[in-house]
């Protein structure tokens, strides 16, 4: 069996990260929303003010999956947290421990950086993922709903007197 | 009537921000979770690597409320977003437009910084807030649930082989 390796992404990984984001969007049935270009990703991950970081999972020479994360902040805890924006393992590499390995590495990063917690959002129909996250001790924030303001509604509020 | 003013917080505002966070925690029935100290807040807001920013709403000389926010990142949009972690208006200043003024200023900041969207989380029983957010055009992400890993479960995953 090929060896599983988890490494921080380098600029050379930007094209495959772009591919992985598209594949994740297909899985989430949100392909129409996946609009990021390689140039945007290069700037966000490796520009002068990085907005996020990426871990790449490889089985032998093949890219098996990725995790993209950044820091949020909890006013109650008074510390940064680690927010996992995307976690994706390509279908043919599932069941081989890639997802667990990515999450373990993220937990280690969170602890090393003195983060109070690690959070991520899950689509309610993704039962396989939910069962996996619960088995790790993750707790659903059932009493909270995220609201989003975007597009013309955001522009309109920004222009309001 | 006193004039409403919205300003970015300064280091001198840290003690009142600490008070406002406690008052928000009481309102959210989460007082036991509000553990941040003034020192932690000073470091997070005004230290060498700020983790968040704050706007303060004042009516005349009195602090009426605050908003604490930071940037997240959308892989689909390929751009930073603005995440509003806390929005709070003291009860005696409600109904005077403080919340709307804070949100307008945040929307303007989001647009100026080329953010694709603005997001925040709301407790499901806070109907007054939900009605207000919907009136601005904010959309609930009903199909998503946030999962949180913290405390011993986080430590355990970080130590796992």
Overview of the molecule:
The structure is a homodimer of 161-residue chains. Chain A is an alpha+beta fold and 161 residues long. The model of chain A has no long low-confidence stretch (mean pLDDT 95). Chain A has a 5-stranded mixed beta sheet, sandwiched between helices. Chain A has helices at 14-27, 38-46, 98-112, 127-135, 151-159, and strands spanning 4-8, 53-59, 62-74, 79-89, 117-123, 139-140, 144-150. The first copy, chain A, contains 5 helices and 7 strands, in the order βααβββαβαββα. In chain A, helix 3 (98-112) links the parallel strand 4 (79-89) and strand 5 (117-123). In chain A, 35% of the residues lie in helices and 32% in strands. The N and C termini of chain A lie far apart (63 Å). Chains A and B meet through helix 1, helix 2, strand 3, strand 4 and helix 3 of A and helix 1, helix 2, strand 3, strand 4 and helix 3 of B. Strand 7 of chain A pairs antiparallel with strand 6 of chain B.
Give the secondary structure arrangement, pairings included.
2 copies of one chain form a homodimer.
Chain A lengths: L3 E5 L5 H14 L10 H9 L6 E7 L2 E13 L4 E11 L8 H15 L4 E7 L3 H9 L3 E2 L3 E7 H9 L2
Parallel strand pairs in A: 4-5
Antiparallel strand pairs in A: 1-2, 2-3, 3-4
């Amino acid at each position: 069996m090929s060896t599983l390796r988890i490494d921080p992404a380098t600029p050379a990984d930007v094209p495959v990260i772009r591919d992985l984001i598209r594949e994740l969007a297909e899985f989430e049935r949100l392909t129409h929303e996946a609009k990021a270009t390689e140039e945007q990703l290069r700037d966000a991950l490796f520009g002068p003010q990085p907005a996020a970081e990426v871990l790449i999972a490889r089985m032998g020479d093949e890219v098996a999956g990725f995790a993209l994360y950044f820091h949020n902040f909890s006013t109650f805890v008074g510390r940064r947290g680690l927010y996992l924006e995307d976690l994706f393992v390509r279908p043919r590499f599932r069941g081989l421990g890639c997802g667990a390995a990515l999450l373990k590495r993220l937990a280690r990063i969170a602890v090393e950086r003195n983060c109070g917690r690690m959070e991520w959002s899950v689509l309610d129909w993704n039962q396989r993922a939910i069962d996996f996250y619960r088995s790790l001790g993750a707790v659903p924030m059932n009493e909270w709903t995220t609201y989003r303001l975007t597009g013309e509604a955001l522009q309109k509020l920004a222009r309001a007197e």
